[in-house]
Amino acid sequence: MTVATDPKDDPNKKEPLQIIEDDEDGEEDAVDVDASATGDAKKKKKKKKPKKKKATQSDPPRVALSKLFPNHVFPEGELQPYKDDNAWRTTSEEKRYLEKLANEDPQTTYQNIRRAAEVHRQVRAHARRTIKPGMSMMEIVENIENGTRALVEENGLDSGVGFPTGVSRNNCAAHYTPNAGDTTVLQQGDVLKVDFGVHVKGRILDSAFTLTFDHTYDKLLEAVKDATNTGVREAGIDVRLGELGGYIQETMEAYEVEVNGKVLPVKTIQNLSGHSIGLYNIHGGKSVMQIPNDDPTKMEEGEYFAIETFGSTGRGRVVDSGECSHYAKIVDAPRVPLRLTSAKSLLKSIDKNFGTLPFCRRYLDRAGEQKYLLALNHLVQQGIVQDYPPLCDQLGSMTAQFEHTILLRPTVKEVVSRGDDY
Fold first, then answer.
1. For residues 236, 239, 242 and 248, what is the CA-based torsion angle, rounded to 10 degrees?
2. Which of 4-8, 53-57, 252-256 bottoms out in mean pLDDT, i.e. has the lowest?
């Protein structure tokens, strides 16, 4: 008689073995193998691990850049070879070595400025897409600054906003940001300059663009963008600043704008300029004027420059006009006795929160300061803090601005703020 038995009771049955295999992504996966099978009949059953999802930016942008670039290697800017007598730098072994040393120095590492640049690109992409007539100026600047703080992971003086967000309109060319209580609303016919900065360990990325909402002033924007690109292209090690201004003006003033049937020349705003950028110092000491001049100063290896140009349909000169919002502690401010207790307290707050980075009254509000205007004006009068009132051309004129930050590396010029937009 043959007796049927339950396979589970079979003493000769072997349990499946479990081995570990490396899969294609380099991770180990558990695999069940039927030990009774041989050759091609061997059966494998992989237990797939769920793949980690790559972080993506939110809308509005609030995901920190460290989540998007976990290896902390940030995109390189546009590279432009040096021209003429400096073309040899591209292949020089000595200059490559110097560049490697500069990048390894914690004070000058290119990753700091590139991190700031990538924050700027992502924040401005959202700003350019969403800024529309009917928005208040306060809403515009807060959206930009909140995005900047989140992406750069604001941390005291280690990283954060580089300077107050400028949203100057129409004949006002620069240095306007709303103070508390300002209810100004963006209008359909406005020409809006958006100028904001990001810093990482004191390396400030300074870049600006202009928006319009009809086509009347398209040629004005085209002229200024072209002039800025000319300045970027012609800039380089050993270039004299006075000569560079001539190239900018020549490009700018080749354009005209037709407004209501009247043809207006585009004029360079002669008393505004680009500038070198120092550590925690937005105006590093060298000026890039927009007109030819006798300045023999040369650009030097390792320097950062903000190449910014301003065009106008007005007289081509600006004057201080309106309520001040922008301030900065002077880098080499004198040590003078302060007779106001409130001024001493405010100076301590400025040192703690901003150092020598520019700030505005909204930032003092955010830091918890109250009733500080008297103290602030006293610091200005004592030469410790510099005020920067709005800069405006004549009423009825329109002004535009474009700006890029460039790095004069030993081997090549890097336009760190360049993006797909401008």
1. -40
2. 4-8
Q: Could you tell me if 203 and 397 are in contact, meaning their C-beta atoms sit under 8 angstroms apart?
A: no
Lowest mean pLDDT among 38-52, 127-141, 171-185: 38-52
DSSP string, 192-218: EEEEEEEEETTEEEEEEEEEESSSTTH
What's the rounded Cα separation, in Å, for the pair 57 and 59? 7
CA atoms 153, 73, 89, 105: torsion sign: positive
Give the single-character DSSP code of 357: S
Instruction: Give the pLDDT of residue 102.
Output: 81
**What predicted TM-score, i.e. pTM, was given to this entire model?**
0.86
Q: Which of 120, 403, 404, 414 is catalytic?
A: 403
207-228 pLDDT, tens digit each: 999 999 999 999 999 999 999 9
* Residue 141 amino acid letter: V
Amino acid found at 332: D
Q: Residue 33's pLDDT band (boundaries 50, 70, 90)?
A: very low
| Cα angle 147-150-156, degrees, rounded to a multiple of 5 | 120
- Residues making up the annotated binding site for a divalent metal cation are 195, 206, 275, 308, 403
DSSP letters, 373-408, are: HHHHHHHHHTTSEEEE--EE--TT--EEEEEEEEEE
Burial of residue 414 (number of CB atoms within 10 Å: 0-12, 13-18, 19+): buried
pLDDT in tens, 287-307: 999 999 999 999 999 999 999
Structure tokens at 395: 């009423």
- Say whether 283 is catalytic: yes
Cβ 219 vs Cβ 268: under 8 Å: no
In the residue annotation, 403 being an active-site residue is answered as yes
Question: pLDDT tier at 46 (50, 70, 90 boundaries)?
Answer: low
Identified catalytic residue from 118, 190, 226, 308: 308
Is the bond preceding 61 in cis, omega lying within 30 degrees of 0? no
Residue 178 predicted with pLDDT over 80: yes
Q: Is 308 a catalytic residue?
A: yes
Distance CA 352, CA 329 (A): 12
For 38, phi and psi rounded to 5 degrees? -135, 160
Q: Which of 120, 126, 199, 283 is catalytic?
A: 283
When the pLDDT of each residue in the chain is averaged and rounded to a whole number, the result is 90
Residue list, annotated binding site? 175, 195, 206, 275, 283, 308, 403
Q: Which of 120, 199, 275, 404 is catalytic?
A: 275
